[in-house]
Amino acid sequence: MALLVIAVASLFVSGCGGDAQATELTVGIHYSQFTREALAVTAGEPITITIQNEDPIEHEWIIGTEDVHERHRLGTEPFHDAFPSEVTVPAFTTRVTQLTFDEPGTYQYICHLPGHEAYGMTGTLTVLAAE
Question: pLDDT class for 84, splitting at 50, 70, 90?
Answer without folding.
Answer: very high
